[in-house]
């Protein structure tokens, strides 16, 4: 191990939270533990200048607590910028529950988690993320009003994923317009990685427009189901990232744009739903730029869900939600143009606008 890594590891021991690589002046980090239900969760509140911190809960079988903390810090930070650039009066927050959603999620655990959310008195509002279903939010709503994405029967707006997918589709079309001169995806080869709640609906939109869709997932049953439904091709082989496609849509987990994958990419556009697609936002944003790959910033184009969830809290107006989500097309084009003019990466261009709005709210 070289000296730098050793030093970083030593630092983590003395400063495991505030010294964390992904710590970015987060306002509050809450560790939640409940022996009876086995709940181990972390709630990250990044910034509340613009309003309460809203962001989903992810349940994942993290390899270590460090990995879970890193994820919640990165995800909650991303939420601050997502809401800011979308023009919503919301701060950024997120929660992670450590465990396997398929085998360890119980109603009692979700209820206990809801009590922890409630203890923050509305500073953090939760919703769905990976590993969560609408029914889980319904359970949380039994113990706290600080939850969105609850079912229509319980007075909510349901799972926000279809709207997220629609926004990603808008962002993808804008990026295609910028790169290929047309936003019509007919005949384009599109790789969708992760065909869960968002990915599947994205496959639907893209296929309906006549694109050739290739799907990849670790869940074989889903692959067969989605392939049969939309006529998408299932990816087979070991070399996903150098697949000869026009557009790559990451819709699984984050950090798939990294030192190993970017040199392999043949896609000319990256536009997907996953949060934190760039493993390192500076280095990997720059690498994509150097390769001439148009990257539609994740936190900009996957904002459909937060638009939907926000409306659930303030005033639910379906037409207004669709209008705002469709506007992702215009904002994406603006950001891509701004990045080129100002000679920065598309991620930096989007971040600059978001950060300015957060700062102005503080003043
Ligand atoms: P989901 O859990 O429904 O789907 C994720 C899918 O990815 C699953 O089918 C899973 O099997 C697959 N997957 C996991 N690891 C994989 C791997 N290594 N390779 C290929 N496939 C893999 O989650 P979702 O709600 O569809 O969210 C997808 C992504 O979009 C997440 O990163 C999430 O944070 C982000 N996002 C979701 C929303 C929303 O409204 N649901 C909003 C904004 C961002």
Automatic annotation (TrEMBL):
Residues 158-363 form the Glutamate/phenylalanine/leucine/valine/L-tryptophan dehydrogenase C-terminal domain. Coiled coil: none annotated. Keywords: NAD, Oxidoreductase. It comes from the Bacteria. Belongs to the Glu/Leu/Phe/Val dehydrogenases family. PANTHER family: LEUCINE DEHYDROGENASE, VALINE DEHYDROGENASE. This is Leucine dehydrogenase. It comes from Mesonia mobilis. The lineage of its organism: Bacteria, Pseudomonadati, Bacteroidota, Flavobacteriia, Flavobacteriales.
């Amino acid at each position: 191990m070289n000296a730098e890594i050793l030093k970083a590891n030593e630092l983590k021991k003395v400063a495991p939270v505030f010294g964390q690589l992904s710590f970015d002046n987060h306002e509050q980090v809450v560790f939640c533990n409940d022996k009876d239900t086995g709940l181990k969760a972390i709630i990250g509140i990044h910034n509340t200048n613009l309003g309460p911190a809203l962001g989903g809960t992810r349940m994942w079988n993290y390899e270590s607590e460090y990995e879970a903390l890193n994820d919640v810090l990165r995800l909650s930070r991303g939420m601050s910028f997502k809401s800011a650039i979308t023009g919503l009066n919301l701060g950024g927050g997120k929660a992670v529950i450590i465990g396997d959603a398929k085998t360890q999620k119980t109603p009692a655990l979700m209820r206990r988690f809801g009590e922890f959310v409630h203890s923050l008195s509305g500073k953090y509002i939760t919703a769905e993320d990976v590993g969560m279903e609408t029914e889980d939010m319904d359970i949380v709503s039994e113990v706290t009003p600080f939850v969105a994405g609850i079912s229509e029967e319980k007075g909510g707006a349901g799972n926000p994923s279809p709207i997220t997918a629609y926004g990603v589709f808008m962002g993808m079309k804008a990026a295609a317009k910028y790169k290929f001169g047309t936003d019509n995806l007919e005949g384009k080869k599109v790789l969708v990685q992760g065909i869960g709640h968002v990915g599947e609906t994205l496959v639907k939109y893209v296929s309906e427009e006549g694109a050739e869709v290739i799907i990849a997932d670790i869940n074989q049953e889903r692959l067969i189901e989605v392939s049969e439904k939309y006529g998408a091709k299932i990816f087979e082989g070991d070399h996903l990232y150098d697949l000869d496609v026009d557009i790559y849509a990451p819709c699984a987990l984050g950090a798939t744009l990294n030192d190993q994958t970017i040199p392999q990419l043949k896609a000319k556009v990256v536009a997907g739903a996953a949060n934190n697609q760039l493993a390192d936002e500076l280095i990997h944003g720059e690498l994509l730029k150097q390769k001439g790959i148009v990257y539609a910033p994740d936190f900009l184009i996957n904002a459909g869900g937060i638009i939907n969830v926000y409306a659930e809290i303030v005033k639910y107006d379906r037409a207004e939600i669709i209008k705002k989500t469709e506007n992702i097309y215009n904002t994406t084009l603006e950001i891509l143009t701004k990045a080129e003019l100002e000679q920065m990466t598309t991620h930096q261009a989007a971040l600059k606008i978001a950060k300015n709005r957060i700062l102005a709210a503080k003043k």
